[in-house]
Structures are given as C-alpha cells and as structure tokens.
Automatic annotation (TrEMBL):
Cofactor(s) needed for function: Mg(2+)
Source species, domain of life: Bacteria
Matching PANTHER family: ADP COMPOUNDS HYDROLASE NUDE, UDP/ADP-SUGAR PYROPHOSPHATASE
Keyword Hydrolase: yes
Gene3D superfamilies tied to this protein: Nucleoside Triphosphate Pyrophosphohydrolase
Name by which UniProt lists this protein: ADP compounds hydrolase NudE
Organism: Shewanella oncorhynchi
Keyword list, A-Z: Hydrolase
GO molecular function (one): hydrolase activity
Lineage, highest ranks first: Bacteria, Pseudomonadati, Pseudomonadota, Gammaproteobacteria, Alteromonadales
Pfam family, one: NUDIX
C-alpha cells in the first residue's frame, strides 16, 4: 500500500470549545495543491483505550451497560481507557476484572483500530482474553454491569441482537473469529474458478 508523501501543512490550530471531557480543535490546513481548509477535530490525548473479547468455557463474556449517547443499555465487550503509567495489556486485564469479574492469563493483541480518524486521533487496541480466572476489582461504573455469556459457536446470532450495535464491538467480534477460526471467514469458491 502506498501512502501520500505530502501531508497537508498545518498553518494554525486553536481550541474552539471545551467541556469536562472533550476539547474541540479547529485546524487550518494547506494541501500540496495550495487549497486551504479548516477542519474541526477532537483534541486527543495519548492514553489510548482497550477492548477485550473474553472467552470462558466456550462462551464470550459480554457486558450490558448503560450508554448515555444512545440512552439505552448496550451489549458489547469490556472496554476502557489506558491509565497513565499502564501498558495496554495491563489496562485490558484491569478492565476485565472491573467490568466482568475475571482476569486473564493469556491476552492476545488482535488489532489496533482508529475510532473515527476524520475527527479523533484516539486509538483502541482489541485483545482476545483466554485462560480466565475469577478476580474482581472495583471500577468506576455507577451500577453493576450485567455479564452476558454468549456461545462462541452462536456468534452470528449476536450480530442480529438489537442491543449489539456498537461498531467497535462488531469489529472485535470479527477479529476474534478471524483469529480463532481463520478458515471460517474466508470465502470459498465452490466452482474452482
């Protein structure tokens, strides 16, 4: 894959709005062809985030928790920010213990995803967690999270569940399937062409 050689020149940046959680930055760019544009983006930090697909006794362990953005209880995989001084693997193991009451002896990085690269610089690392053991840490959630076991073999039905709609969780599901069953997601040409 080739990359463009000449990224736009950043002429000026300015914070145009801020809240307790977010800062919106206006970026004035000049492209290699001379065209200038202003974009807005969420000013990101460098902490990053993790999402974990935990596998225990042939089942994925999902978390059902309230999401203020959709005003709904969403079904997805455990996730959270990487704390200062923490590695991504340490954050993944901590989040598992805080959200679903399990730690993992085997965490495998599946992929690092960008969330919305046109607006955010944030990245999320997706892990597969195996060899789980019971362990609970106190998290910052306002109410207990419901843990929903889902048969690994029934992963396609999970895609049909109306509460399983977060794109990062859907991506994590496919990444886990690709890792666990690499030949199942490949298209087979039955005609031999």
């Amino acid at each position: 894959m080739s990359q463009r050689q000449n990224k736009p020149e950043i002429l000026h940046t300015e914070i145009v709005a801020r809240s307790r959680l977010f800062q919106i930055e206006q970026v004035h760019l000049k492209f290699s062809n001379g065209v200038e544009r202003q974009y807005e983006r969420m000013k990101g930090g460098s902490r990053g985030a993790v999402m974990i697909v935990p596998i225990h006794q042939g089942k994925m362990l999902l978390a059902r928790e309230y999401a203020a953005g959709t005003d709904n209880y969403e079904l997805g995989f455990p996730k959270g920010l990487i704390d200062p001084g923490e590695t991504a693997i340490e954050a993944a193991n901590r989040e598992l213990q805080e959200e679903i009451g399990f730690g993992s002896n085997k965490l495998t990085l599946l992929k690092e995803l960008s969330l919305a690269p046109g607006y955010f610089s944030s990245k999320m690392q997706i892990f597969l967690a195996e060899d789980l053991y019971e362990s609970r840490l106190e998290g910052d959630e306002p109410e207990p999270i419901d843990v929903v076991p889902w048969a690994l073999a029934d992963w396609e039905a999970l895609l049909d569940d109306v509460d399983f709609s977060e794109s990062r969780s859907v991506s994590a599901l496919f990444l886990a399937q690709k890792y666990l069953y690499p030949n199942n997601l490949k298209m087979q040409d039955s005609a031999g062409v």
